[in-house]
Specification:
Blueprint (H helix, E strand, L loop, with lengths): L1 E5 L5 E7 L12 E4 L10 E3 L5 E6 L2 E6 L6 E2 L6 E6 L5 E6 L4 E6 L6 E5 L9 E3 L5 E4 L5 E4 L7 E4 L5 E9 L6 E7 L4 E7 L2 E4 L2
Antiparallel strand pairs: 1-2, 2-3, 4-5, 5-6, 6-7, 8-9, 9-10, 10-11, 12-13, 13-14, 14-15, 16-17, 17-18, 18-19
Amino acid sequence: MLLLSFGSGIGIFWLVSFIWFQTPQPPVREFQLQIPGKVPSGRSAVVSPDGSTIAYVSDTRLWLRPLDNTDATPVPGSNGAVLPFWSSDSDSIAFFNSRSGSLQVADMSGEPARIRCNLPARGVYGGGSWTADGTILFSQGPLGLYSLAADSDEPEPLVLAAEGDAGFYAPHVMPDGASVLFSVWKKDGLWQIEMLSDGKRTIVI
């Protein structure tokens, strides 16, 4: 579980705690991260699943910083980065690029970020998640959820808007590797949480 709270205008993030659901559990860690430059609103900082690295967006670039070090490194080719999200093995990180209208991926090797696909629409970013086999699921807000296979550069629709749907956000692949949890904004202004499993949508909350 990861809890982040945002400080005032200087872009301070508090990582309250994160707990790996393993046995035995490692101790809770707490630290302060001060991000220089212009920090976008929303989820602009994310910790890798293995707890070793934090990625954040500042001055429209993606930065990586080991949790045991205070030095951050910019990811080459990441100008325009929005809403980063880690692969399940912590070896790669994906992000939307507002300048190129693409979904990009960067590895921990230090090589420049590469374009994985062009987005169905520019300017609409709703988060993403990876499966263990390298498939990337991502949201395009009112357009729906999309799936990008590891060996493809063409995203395929996963969930499209039904009657009453206004937008889809924050997809998250569940531990079974097949089900997907996501948020739905309804046209009546309400929100609900749904699960996609075997191609069927089920309301959770």
